Amino acid sequence: MAELEVRVVSERREGLLVELGRVVTEYGHVLVRQRLVPDAQGACLTLLLRGPDERQLALQEALGTHPRVLSFESSRPAFAEGVAAATASAPMAQAAPLVEAARPAPASLPAQDATPLAAGADVARVERMLPNLAKDYPRIFPWLINLEYAVADEARDASLYLAGRRTGAWVYKRDFALGAKLGMTDALRRIAVPALRGLVTVEQHDHQLHLRGCPLCQPGGASGGRFFCGFIEGLLTDSVETPTVFVRETSCHSSGAAMCVFDISH
Fold it and tell me: What structural domains and CATH numbers belong to the chain?
């Protein structure tokens, strides 16, 4: 069991603890202590939670995307052994917070095969960039290219994936969240394709998406497909009837392919 401290800001304090408490319970955590104080935007609620470590990222995402939450911060308190955990700073308003690690990269990209995409991300740097992505969207590629150079080489792919996942979840909630749950094919056609068209040229082929003109995937350079893996998953996770969505890149323009191809499964 691990502890997690979260801080949320909401417009109203009435019922806030009860509503967020339901989310905490749903993800197998218990409330150790809480503090609710006035804030310039309404109310600030700080919670110290305890629960299974493997569910904390999912809990953070659920809390950060709750309709009552205007901003979200989380940190892992230092353990008795003296191991301090990373602290997340405020993301873009109502965007998803940290996300669960995705499955490993596809076999066609063996260099990252054994590493879950979100593991090892430079969380703090991604978090600081998110408000800029929200402000400038869809003109986000300069920020993402800057992120590629700003983080350590070993954190590049994971950071791009995390930025994509958070941005995709934010776009879904902003533009598509009022619709009913869809089957995968319809979700790709009605959500993923329209959202991606604001960024790149995209075509749907059954459960594949073909992307052209990606500034992150220049021939001879490193693949930027990890961003789109995260972006598509962020768009679809809450829109489809199935509980999980997996996206993997099977070919990339940076490796000489005519286009970037992404397989979507569940």
Answer: 1-88 (3.30.70.260)
Q: How many CA atoms lie within 13 A of 141 on its CB side?
A: 13
The SS3 assignment for 30 reads strand
Strand partners, 87: 75
According to DSSP, the β-strands at 260-265 and 246-251 are antiparallel
Place of tokens 């979840």: 169
Helices (H), 94-244: 123-136, 141-150, 156-175, 184-187, 193-197, 225-236
d(CA 21, CA 34): 11
Give Dmax (Cα) for the chain. Answer: 56
What is d(CA 141, CA 215) in angstroms, rounded to the nearest whole number? 7
Q: What is the pLDDT of residues 194-244, one digit of tens each?
A: 999 999 999 999 999 999 988 899 888 899 999 999 999 999 998 998 878
CA distance 58 to 265: 20
The whole-angstrom separation of Cα 39 and Cα 62 is 22
Give the DSSP H or E segment for 18: helix 16-26
Give one DSSP letter per residue of 56-78, joined into a string.
HHHHHHHHHT-TT-SEEEEE-PP
pLDDT digits (tens, 9 = 90+) for 139-192: 999 999 999 989 999 999 999 999 999 999 999 999 998 778 899 999 999 999
pTM (two decimals): 0.59
- Strands 246-251, 208-212: parallel, antiparallel or unpaired by DSSP? unpaired
